[in-house]
From TrEMBL:
<keyword id="KW-1003">Cell membrane</keyword>
<feature type="transmembrane region" description="Helical">
    <location>
        <begin position="256"/>
        <end position="277"/>
    </location>
</feature>
<dbReference type="Pfam" id="PF07549">
    <property type="entry name" value="Sec_GG"/>
</dbReference>
<keyword id="KW-1133">Transmembrane helix</keyword>
<keyword id="KW-0472">Membrane</keyword>
<feature type="transmembrane region" description="Helical">
    <location>
        <begin position="169"/>
        <end position="191"/>
    </location>
</feature>
<dbReference type="Pfam" id="PF02355">
    <property type="entry name" value="SecD_SecF_C"/>
</dbReference>
<dbReference type="GO" id="GO:0015450">
    <property type="term" value="F:protein-transporting ATPase activity"/>
</dbReference>
<comment type="similarity">
    <text>Belongs to the SecD/SecF family. SecF subfamily.</text>
</comment>
<feature type="transmembrane region" description="Helical">
    <location>
        <begin position="26"/>
        <end position="47"/>
    </location>
</feature>
<feature type="transmembrane region" description="Helical">
    <location>
        <begin position="197"/>
        <end position="216"/>
    </location>
</feature>
<keyword id="KW-0653">Protein transport</keyword>
<feature type="domain" description="Protein export membrane protein SecD/SecF C-terminal">
    <location>
        <begin position="114"/>
        <end position="306"/>
    </location>
</feature>
<protein>
    <recommendedName>
        <fullName>Protein-export membrane protein SecF</fullName>
    </recommendedName>
</protein>
<dbReference type="GO" id="GO:0005886">
    <property type="term" value="C:plasma membrane"/>
</dbReference>
<keyword id="KW-0812">Transmembrane</keyword>
<feature type="transmembrane region" description="Helical">
    <location>
        <begin position="283"/>
        <end position="305"/>
    </location>
</feature>
Length: 371
C-alpha cells in the first residue's frame, strides 16, 4: 500500500489516474441535482434574514443564569402586547437575544421591562437596538450589488488571464454551484443570515475560485503545445491536470477546514457567540462544496464546452488516426475489452521526491578559483 506522498507523486507523474473527465456526467448530474434541490428549498422555505436586512428591534439580556431558557422571552414579548413571531437565540453562556419587528418607543420600553422581570435582572442589563426598514433595505441592496460586482469582475479578470471565455464561464458556473448549495443549506436549516454571513459567502467564493484557477492554470500549461502532437486529446490532458493538482486541493481544503471547524464547533457551539456562527457556518459549508466543485464541476464543465469546438474535434480525429496507425504497426496493444492501451500523455511531469530540496547534495556549490 503506497503512502500519501507516493500516491501524490503517482498522480502528478501520470502513473496513477482517476477518470474524472471520462465519467464527468456523474459529478455534473450530482451537482445539477444539488443546485435544483437548493433552489427548491429557497423557493419553498425562503431565507431567514436578520433585522440588519429587514429592520426591527433587538433586545439583548445579559448576566442571566447559565444557559437561560428561551420560553420566558416569548412570554415577555407576549405580555408586552405583541402576538407576532419573535426570534430568540442564546448569546454566550448567560445571555439572550430577542428580535421583533420595529415598534413604538413605549412598546419597546415595555418589552425591556418584561424581559428584565422575566429573567430577574436590572433593566440596565437589557439593551435595545432599533434598525429602520429603510436602512435594512439599503444593506440588502448593497449586499446584492457587491455580489454582482464581484461576479462581474471575476468574469472579466478570468477572460483576460486565460484569454478564453470557456474557462471564465466554467469557473463562474462552479461559483454559482457553491453559492446556491450554501444558500440551500441555510434555507433548509433556517439559520439566520446576517452581514457576517454575507462576508462568509463572499470569502468562500474567493476560496473556491482560487482552487479552480490553480487547476485551470495547470490545464493551460499541459495543453500549451497540444495541437503540435498526436498522442493525447484535450480531455486526457485536462484529466491529467486534475490528478496533478488533486493532492494540493485536498491539502489546501484540510488546512482551511480544520481552523474553521474549530471556530464553528468550539467557538460557536460551546461559547455560543452568534457572530462566530454566522461567519463560520458558510465558510465550513462552502469550503467542502468548493473543493468538490473545483475538482468535479469546473473542469468537467470546461471539457464539455471545449469539446464542441471544431479545433478540438479535428485534433481528436488526428489522435484517433495516429493511434489506429500505431495499433496496425504493433506499437501499442489492445486491452481485453478491445479498447486502446492507455497512451502516455503528451505532458508528464517528473515524479517529486520528498526532501529532494534538502541535504548537502542540493546546496549551491562554490566555484573554484582558477590558478
Amino acid at each position: 500500500m503506497m503512502s500519501y506522498a507516493q500516491w501524490g507523486n503517482a498522480l502528478y507523474s501520470g502513473k496513477k489516474s482517476y477518470g474524472i473527465i471520462k465519467n464527468r456526467r456523474i459529478p455534473l448530474t450530482v451537482g445539477a441535482i444539488l443546485m435544483a434541490i437548493s433552489v427548491i428549498g429557497i423557493a419553498i422555505f425562503g431565507l431567514n434574514p436578520s433585522i440588519e436586512f429587514t429592520g426591527g428591534a433587538e433586545f439583548v439580556v445579559t448576566n442571566t443564569v447559565k444557559n437561560p431558557p428561551q420560553q420566558p422571552a416569548y412570554n415577555a414579548v407576549k405580555a408586552a402586547g405583541l402576538n407576532e413571531q419573535t426570534k430568540v437565540a442564546q448569546m454566550g453562556t448567560n445571555g439572550l437575544r430577542v428580535q421583533t419587528s420595529q415598534q413604538p418607543n413605549d412598546v419597546e420600553l415595555k418589552i425591556q421591562q418584561e424581559l428584565a422581570k422575566s429573567y430577574h435582572v436590572d433593566i440596565k442589563k437589557v439593551s435595545k437596538t432599533s434598525i429602520g426598514p429603510s436602512w435594512g433595505a439599503s444593506v440588502s441592496k448593497q449586499a446584492l450589488v457587491g455580489l454582482l460586482v464581484f461576479m462581474g469582475m471575476i468574469a472579466v479578470l478570468l477572460m483576460a488571464y486565460f484569454r478564453t471565455w470557456t474557462m471564465s464561464f466554467s469557473a463562474l458556473f462552479a461559483l454559482l454551484h457553491d453559492f446556491l448549495i450554501t444558500l440551500g443549506v441555510f434555507a433548509y436549516t433556517h439559520i439566520e443570515i446576517t452581514p457576517a454571513t454575507i462576508i462568509g459567502l463572499l470569502t468562500i467564493l474567493g476560496y473556491s475560485l482560487y482552487d479552480t484557477v490553480v487547476v485551470f492554470d495547470k490545464i493551460r500549461e499541459n495543453t500549451r503545445d497540444m495541437f503540435n502532437q498526436s498522442r493525447s486529446k484535450y480531455n486526457e490532458l485536462a484529466n491529467l491536470s486534475i490528478n496533478q493538482t488533486m493532492v494540493r486541493s485536498i491539502n489546501t481544503s484540510i488546512t482551511g477546514i480544520l481552523p474553521v471547524s474549530a471556530i464553528l464547533f468550539l467557538g460557536a457551539a460551546l461559547l455560543g457567540t452568534s457572530t462566530l456562527l454566522d461567519i463560520s457556518m458558510p465558510l465550513f459549508i462552502g469550503m467542502i462544496v468548493g473543493t468538490f466543485s473545483s475538482i468535479f464541476i469546473a473542469t468537467p464543465m470546461l471539457t464539455l464546452i471545449r469539446g464542441r469546438s471544431q479545433a478540438i474535434k479535428d485534433h481528436n480525429a488526428k489522435v484517433d488516426k495516429a493511434r489506429a496507425a500505431a495499433v496496425e504497426s504493433g506499437a501499442v496493444t489492445l486491452k481485453e475489452d478491445g479498447s486502446f492501451q492507455e497512451i502516455t500523455p503528451a505532458v508528464v511531469a517528473a515524479p517529486m521526491v520528498p526532501g529532494h530540496h534538502k541535504g548537502q547534495a542540493s546546496q549551491p556549490k562554490r566555484k573554484k578559483n582558477k590558478k
